[in-house]
Each structure stands twice: as structure tokens, then as C-alpha cells.
Amino acid sequence: NNTFSTLFVGQNLIKLKEVDSTNNFLKDLVSKSEPLAEGTVIMADNQFAGRGQQESVWQTQAGKNISTSIYLKPSFLPLNKQFYLNIAVSLAVSDALSCFVPEGIKIKWPNDMYYQNKKLGGILIENTLTGNSIKSSVIGIGLNINQSEFSDNINQRATSVIQILQRDVPLMDIMDKIFIFMEKYYLILRAGKYSILQNDYLSRLYNFNILGLYMQNGEIFEGTIKGVEDGGRLTVDTKNGLKVFNFKEIEFTHTK
Ligand code: BTN
């Protein structure tokens, strides 16, 4: 009952009016109805307990934005390449957004969607492992699309497609592109073409090769992002040489 031109991503689409979190809903479904078709997608008009990275809260305006979760089973991924799932998803979402916002969509390491120093959306990937391999993966994607205003406390840090384009975009048009690009990058991932993913990721990476100010443990320093290791750590060139950072060890302040 849909017309997405994909083989599997989005072919089983479950639309909900309201849910606590599409990630929670999908994880529940996976545990109750295995085998669930790979590429199954949950989409909700509203989430009342959306979750973000690092136990944070993800808030969204009902009916205006994208809150979705995609079910994948990347059991083929070797342990030392699991960060490439995050890369593939980030590329898919940024390419989808770039169909509507032709210039300026960036990926802020590891997987935030950015437009001119403001956050447009985020990704929360939750994996179930068997041994060292990923048994199932719930890919949560939250994007600010047709929300035109933000509360004062996040107004300086958040933006939306409607704020950028001054017009609204049908959510399903964006979903369609997400499905197409998700399938594309997932197949590249499955083929083990890691250098393609790495190059594409760096070409869209926020602040890549640009001198910026960073903060670690309250200390501000100058640095230039030079790359991302296979395991996902960020490499930054600093006055004291090349340094590597894990997620949340470093904060971006601003471009110099
Ligand atoms: C972040 O930037 O911290 C990640 C935000 C991820 C939000 C999405 S919305 C759909 C899915 N369900 C959730 O509860 N979270 C993700």
C-alpha cells in the first residue's frame, strides 16, 4: 500500500499517531515478532518520550517533524567496522535532506545533522549483539522539518527545514528519500566498500579541515579535524600534535 521505489527499506511501514518513542516501539516489536522483515519502519506523528544520545530527551512538535525508526540486521559487519553503520545512516539522512536543502547540510561527528552551526536533527542507533556481531539494529531518526519556532533555550542551537527554505515540505517526500538513500548506503556497507563511505562521510563532515575551537574538560584549545578512525574516534590536529577523542570527550565551541 505504498509506492516507495526501494527493495526493502520502508516496504513495511507502520504509521502511528502517538507513541512514547519509535525506537522503543520498534525494539518491542522486534522482541515480540521475530522474524520481523528487515527494512520495517515505524513513523509517529508525535512522540511523548523521545530519546536522544547520552540519555538525553528528544522533543518534537506533534505533526510537524520526522520521528522514525528503521529496522536493519547488519550481522555481516565485523566488530572493528561497526562505526560504519553510523556513517552509512548519517550519509543517507544527509543526502535525503540535501534533496530539499541543496547546499549546506553537514554531518557533525558522530551523527548530528547540521545546517550553519545549528542542529537540524539527530540519530540514535540501538543495537542488539550476539557475541561480537550486530543481531539487530534500531535506527532512530529525528528531524526538524516543519516546526517554525523553537523554545528560547534551544533557539540558538536548533533549526528546521521550514526555517531554512521558508516553505514547508511534505514529510513523506523526505521519508521517501531517506528510504532510497538508506538502502543505497546499506548495500555499499554490505559490500564492504568502507573507503567509499569514509570519503563521503569526510566530505560532508562539519568543520572538517577547518581550524576551530574545541573544549575538553573545560579547557579550550585550537584544533583542526583531520579524520575519523575506523572505530569512530575523532582525530584532531592540535598545537600538541594529533589527538584522538571518543564521543563526549570533546565539545565543539565555534569556528575560529
Ligand atoms: C540525538 O541527537 O540526541 C538523537 C535524537 C534521535 C531522536 C529520534 S526520534 C525517533 C527515534 N525515537 C527516539 O526516541 N529517538 C529517535
From TrEMBL:
Enzyme Commission number: 6.3.4.15
Gene3D superfamilies: Bira Bifunctional Protein, Domain 2
InterPro entries on file: aa-tRNA-synth_II/BPL/LPL, Biotin_CoA_COase_ligase, BPL_C, BPL_LPL_catalytic
Catalytic activity: biotin + L-lysyl-[protein] + ATP = N(6)-biotinyl-L-lysyl-[protein] + AMP + diphosphate + H(+)
Keyword annotations: Biotin, Ligase
Domain BPL/LPL catalytic: 1-190
Protein name according to UniProt: biotin--[biotin carboxyl-carrier protein] ligase
Cellular component GO terms, alphabetical: cytoplasm
Molecular-function GO terms, alphabetical: biotin--[biotin carboxyl-carrier protein] ligase activity
